[in-house]
Design a protein that fits this description.
Elements lengths: L1 H23 L26 E6 L7 E4 L5 E4 L2 E5 L5 H12 L8 E6 L9 E5 L5 E3 L7 H7 L12 E7 L2 E7 L1 H5 L15 E4 L5
Parallel strand pairs: 6-10
Antiparallel strand pairs: 1-2, 1-5, 3-4, 6-7, 8-9, 8-10
């Protein structure tokens, strides 16, 4: 009888360990580790909400600091409703020169961007059991560890090892598993991975 009870206990222990193992990682294929590819975004793209300093050489009265409106346009002295979102600062500068050439001979414009937000489709979104879920501008060479630090870590209810990254590849949404618990609590640097513009990190709640 004792042998039977012992066997049952061993079986239940094996089942319990199997459940734990199955819950420890995501069902999705793992995201490859390593640093972000070099020059993922070689040129910054302006987005709604960005602050832009428009400097017109030798024409300080035409220079101004503007915020890109929600419709993606800006208005400066003499020039109204110029599309800015989706352009690089250099492209916007050339467009401003073209607009100002109606009023100024051979204008020279420089655009300096600060208060970076970027276009929505390039932002990184963190949802679920993060301490501070939010959308963040992508930064070159951004890693999973950088992202977790930026959102203040995980809540006590998070199941970090079942988190997933949703990414667009060849025009299709694909999902990959990431091991945040192993990275943060286990100091397993192999669990660190790269983040790309437009990624969505979903951190689920633990069942127990």
């Amino acid at each position: 009888m004792k042998a039977i009870k012992s066997s049952v206990c061993i079986i239940w222990l094996g089942v319990f360990m199997l459940v734990l193992t199955g819950c420890a990682t995501s069902k999705y294929p793992p995201l490859e580790g390593g640093p972000a590819p070099v020059q993922v975004t070689p040129d910054y793209i302006i987005g709604a909400g960005d602050n832009a300093e428009i400097f017109v050489w030798r024409n300080p009265e035409l220079s101004s600091d503007v915020t890109v409106r929600p419709d993606g346009k800006i208005t400066t002295p003499l020039v109204e409703d110029v599309p800015a979102s989706g352009k690089t600062p250099t492209q916007l500068a050339r467009d401003m020169e073209k607009e100002l050439s109606v009023y100024v001979k051979n204008p020279v414009v420089t655009v300096m961007v600060n208060g970076f937000i970027g276009p929505y489709d390039k932002q990184i979104r963190v949802v679920g059991q993060a301490a501070n879920p939010q959308a963040l501008p992508y930064r070159d060479q951004m890693s999973l560890l950088d992202l977790i630090i930026a959102v203040g870590g995980l809540t006590e209810f998070a199941d970090g090892n079942k988190s997933i990254v949703v990414r667009v590849i060849d025009g299709e949404w694909q999902q990959f598993g990431v091991r945040i618990d192993d990275l943060i609590n286990g100091a397993d640097i192999s669990a660190n991975t790269y983040i790309l513009p437009g990624d969505i990190l979903i951190i689920p709640e633990s069942w127990f």
